[in-house]
Every structure is written in C-alpha cells, then in structure tokens.
C-alpha cells in the first residue's frame, strides 16, 4: 500500500505544483492549511481558479470533472446561468448586508412550504446545516420538556454538540462513541444511538428510552453513512413510535431535499415528520438552511415552553440575506418548473455511471460495489459511492458495511482512489459524489475511463 500511495503522491505533485506552493502558504497561517477538514486531503488540495458547469480548473490550468459540486449543493452545476441571471441586476444595484427583513424570504418560505403540501407548517431560515440541526433539537427539547435525542449510527447532522456521537465508526465499538473533544460528559449520555433500517432495534430502543426522548432525528437518505435509503417500512415505524411516545420526529433533508424531486424526499415516501431540515439546494449556492416544523413546535422560538424560557433561535447575522434568498428562489423555481426532465435524466446518467464503474474494475479483476440506489420509492438517484469489499457476502445496506475496515477497504476508497482519480482529471469525495444537470453522457464516459485507469494503477500495486 505504501508503494501505491508514494506513486500517487508523486504523480499528483507533478501535476499541481502551484497548488502545492499555495498550500504551503496557507499552512503558515491556517489550521491544517484551511477551514474545512474534508477539503484538506493528503498530501494537499488543489486550488481552483474557476468553476463552471461540471468542471473546475486549478492554478496549474488542469480541468477536473467535479462530483463534489459544492458539498452536493450545486444540482445545476457550478455557477449556473439561471441563478447568475437572477443575481446580476441585484448585485449591480448594491447588495451588501443591511440587517433588515426582506420580502424575498417570504417568497422562498412560501415556495418551500408549498412543495411539502402539509398545512400548518412554519419555517425559519439560518445559514448552515449545523445550526439548523442544533436549533431543531433545542426546539424539540423545549416543546417536550425532555432532554434525550435519538439518532442513527453513521448519521451526520453537522457539528451540533447535541448530535456529535455515533458519526464515526470505531472498530470493536461501532457507532457508539462521542466524536469530538470539548463536549460535557452529560451530552454523550443524552445522545442515544439506534441502527439504520433495523426495525427491531428501533422498537427496543423506543421501549427503553421513549418516555425520555425529545426527538428522533434521521436522514431518509443517509449521506456520509453510505448513500443509503431508509426503507419505507422503517420510516413508517419511526412515525408510529414517535406518535406513541410523544417524540418529535425530525427528518434531516439537508442533502436529500429537492435532490430527488422538487420537494423533500418525505413527499415520495408519504411519511410526514414533525420537523424537517433543509439546506444546500434551497440556497442556490449561497449560505442557506432552514428549519421547518409544525406551528405548535416552531412557536417555541417566541413562546415560553415547559421551562418558562423560549428557544433562542435567532438564526444569525446573515440569516435570510436577500442575495441568498434570491439565489434559492431562482434554484427552486427552476427545479419545480423542470422537474419532469431533470430528475429522470440525472438518475439515468448516475445509473450508467455506477454500472460502468463496477464493470471497469471487474475488467481488471477487481471488485467494487457502488451505493447510491436501493429500496426506496424513487425512480432514480444521482448519487454514487465506490466501495471496496473485503468479504464476498457484504450487501452494503448499512453504514457499518461502508465504514467498518474489516468489511471495506476504507483507506483505498477515501485516500488512494481520490488521488488516482485526480491525476486522471476527476474529483470525488468518499469515492464518488453526485451528478449535476451540467454533466453530460460524454462526461460519464470520461469518468468511467478515469476509474478504469485507477483500477489499472491499483492492480499494478495491489
């Protein structure tokens, strides 16, 4: 494995000398040379100078097909014309932050709530998924007067202190550990972990902790946990148990919202949560997230709860910035108007890509399994993740399958594959990513060829 990484490092460094120099400069003034750990891959990240559609260009002039697409926020590709056209007149007139309310946020709020088709909802905007999940838990605790929260092992809800447990897999302990220093011990005790798509375990967990739980938060489509869909039966059971025990059911749709249809994934499942989190796509490339919930819960922002205090959900200095709201409204208007053409097309292209990647490795005598699709009510998924099984009988249906190093070669997916693809002009995260409407059939063929060249490199050094 060392020979493989040494070779990949050398090839990457030859290609990205100017980015190396830029990173050395960054490392002198910034922690690890940047502000987001996932962007700081080894030996160093390349630095883009432009991004358009499916492609980014680095300091050395190299083009990369990008499947990260702004942390999955750019469904229309980088810098889409439809959003630039909406923003340019506004920016030209002067768009610095004023700190006042604006009418555009009302339009975006109406658009989001209308897409959900559930009466009696209210919304409040903020600027990140982490803030949205934090406020949602606070609202649930304020509403119920309880202080325990249930989440799925392998689920990622941002760096909320209420949810930083059960994110990373620890050999021998699974998804059961706190994932950050700096948290009071009582936080860990108040975060309960259940298993993904395991109905029996969910029932047992509710039976044991149900009367103490304020919220059960889950992703209908689990992101970092492996691009896996909850089963319809699991979501229906979650709804039933939440009702039975008086628990606030929260769907984290930061990734899945407007990614599979012009609404939340909940619309396709036909299961309605008490609260929903949205982000990424609803900002059209700007810093927008939102908490949506039943009015009686959301009113906790202004009305005192069981503790005699209101929930201090202030949103933040840049919440509902008019520029952000305009970008989000342009994005959602376009997705709603073109729903019938967008989602089937990118779903079909992604299916072709997943199949092509598996075939490319198989042709070199190597086995990979792509996740990103599965048992769900959707017709197509634009996501793909490449996994390297260590055993033949792994079906890749749980986050444990994805992240347990005894089941999958995590190092090969997370580090070696990334570099092997970068030197062949493709940028991915976690071995894959998502498609945008800017990706073409020619891009898919080029990407499959890059994976095939990566497979040949792996075979040489295996």
Short structural summary:
The protein is α/β, with parallel strands linked by helices. It contains 16 helices and 16 strands. The termini are close together.
Description:
- With 462 residues, the chain is of the alpha/beta class.
- It folds into 2 domains: 2-79 and 339-461, Aspartate Aminotransferase, domain 1, CATH 3.90.1150; 81-337, 3-Layer(aba) Sandwich (Aspartate Aminotransferase, domain 2).
- The chain has 16 helices and 16 strands.
- It has helices spanning 2-15, 17-27, 69-72, 81-92, 104-116, 129-144, 185-189, 199-209, 232-245, 265-269, 295-298, 322-337, 339-362, 399-403, 410-422, 441-461, and strands spanning 48-52, 55-58, 63-66, 121-126, 148-152, 191-194, 213-218, 221-222, 228-229, 248-253, 275-278, 289-294, 369-371, 383-387, 426-427, 433-434.
- The strands form 4 sheets. Strands 4-12-11-10-7-5-6 form a 7-stranded mixed sheet, with helices on both faces.
- Strand 8 and strand 9 form a beta hairpin.
- The longest helix is centred in the C-terminal third of the chain and has 24 residues, at 339-362.
- The relative contact order is 0.15.
